[in-house]
Amino acid sequence: MAIRVYIIDDHPLIIDGLRLNFKSHDRISIVGSNTDARIALDDINARRDEIDVVLLDVSTQKSSGFDICRRLKEEGSRPYVIFMTFWLDDVTRMHVDRSEHDGVVLKNDAIDYVADVITRVFDGPRPVIHEALSTEPTTPSPSILTQAELNVLYYIAVKGLTSREIAEVLSRSEETVYKHRKNVMEKLGIRNVQGLVWYAMAIGLHQRPPVAD
């Protein structure tokens, strides 16, 4: 019996690569895909009986993969959800741990490993734990950030401001703001703005602003 897989990823090349590579795996059949997570959610809900597993990018642009997973699981345990990500920093791991997922793969995992995870998720038991998640996660404490860096994190992750807008609010040069932003990402081990947003949520920065709002 073929395992019917639906792929959600912002990048068409990722989807095309998976489609091509899975052709050598007789048990896996790609039955749908979409680069728009919201459209994909509607498509999957309309075809739930035709889909066994969803390969879901955690960093979809219009809606986070974690939100899509939550909404899928509200309708039932199936289809099973396997997260895809390029890396597992502490903030991503925290969100994975808190979600009702069935497995995790890295985008640089060998295709045979990804196929094996899909098969194991389908056959059970679930979730299938990636070896990268076998050690205890440690979310960095905000105490490692200076006050200036915490302020910049707040304006980026909570207020959604650009470096130029933050510079105007704080009466600092754009170069200074960019330096603080770079320091924040290096200290926290976070590589993109979405990761900063997740971290800010994790430490409750939206509820306890570091500056007068």
Itemize the secondary structure elements and their pairings.
Elements: E1 3-8, H1 12-22, E2 28-34, H2 37-46, E3 53-57, H3 65-73, E4 80-85, H4 90-98, E5 103-106, H5 111-123, H6 147-157, H7 163-170, H8 174-188, H9 193-202
Parallel strand pairs: 1-2, 1-3, 3-4, 4-5
The low-confidence parts are: none
How many structural domains does the protein architecture include? Answer: 2
What average pLDDT do the residues reach?
88
Distance between the termini: 57 Å
Q: What's the total count of β strands? A: 5
- The succession of helices and strands, N to C, reads EHEHEHEHEHHHHH
Notable traits:
213 residues; Arc Repressor Mutant, subunit A; Rossmann fold; five-stranded parallel β-sheet; 45% helix; single chain; alpha/beta
The gist of it:
The protein is α/β, with parallel strands linked by helices and 213 residues long.
Summarize the structure in words.
The protein has a 5-stranded parallel beta sheet, with helices on both faces. It contains 9 helices and 5 strands. By secondary structure, the protein is of the alpha/beta class. Strand 1 (3-8), helix 1 (12-22) and strand 2 form a beta-alpha-beta unit. The radius of gyration is 19 Å and the shape is elongated. The protein starts with a strand and ends in an 11-residue tail after the last helix. It folds into 2 domains: 3-133, Response regulator (Rossmann fold, 3-Layer(aba) Sandwich); 142-202, Winged helix-like DNA-binding domain superfamily/Winged helix DNA-binding domain (Arc Repressor Mutant, subunit A, Orthogonal Bundle), CATH 1.10.10. It has helices at residues 12-22, 37-46, 65-73, 90-98, 111-123, 147-157, 163-170, 174-188, 193-202, and strands spanning 3-8, 28-34, 53-57, 80-85, 103-106. The mean pLDDT is 88.
